[in-house]
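Shall we go through a protein fold together, starting from nothing but its sequence? Please make up or recall a protein chain and show it to me in full. Go ahead whenever you are ready, and we will take it from there.
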Amino acid sequence: MNRITVYERADFEGLSREFTCDVPDLHELDFGNCIASLKVVGQPWIAYTEPKYEGEPHAFEEGEYPSVERPNSFSALRLVHHDLVDPQITLYERPNFQGACKVVTEETNLAYGYFNDRVASHVVQRGVWLLYQHPGRGGWHCLAWPGERLADYKPELNFQARLSHLRPLRPGQPM
């Protein structure tokens, strides 16, 4: 059973709610913008800063989070239903899937190779990926979903070929 339990205070204190399916607007359940800690069982969840899965996404894999990076800012929750086993993404040097390409199947810090700050488009074959602007999971980040074909980072992500780190979400342990 996949579930997320959210708490209004750090260290799993205060009011709590448990969810087993997507919640497009936490405000409708009187729990919007008040999450300070959480626990995830099973598949990862994505918390969004705006209702209807808009705004900045934050990924939470299976585990306990006694404090969250942006407390009191989440307005929607989405369970990751996709198969996360055997992830794969292809990165391209130029827009429209042109130029040199690199197939990635695991967490990779691009700062140590040719593709650092040179990726301009991608195709996600499998898995859900977190793309980071800076090495070491730093800076602005976004999600890339299975089947996604992003032809140009500049207008779509405002990355302007500044991708330096990426990692696939890890699947939860089946119960």
Notes: The chain has a mean pLDDT of 94. The longest strand covers residues 3-9. The chain has two domains: 3-79, 88-168. Helices lie at 153-157.
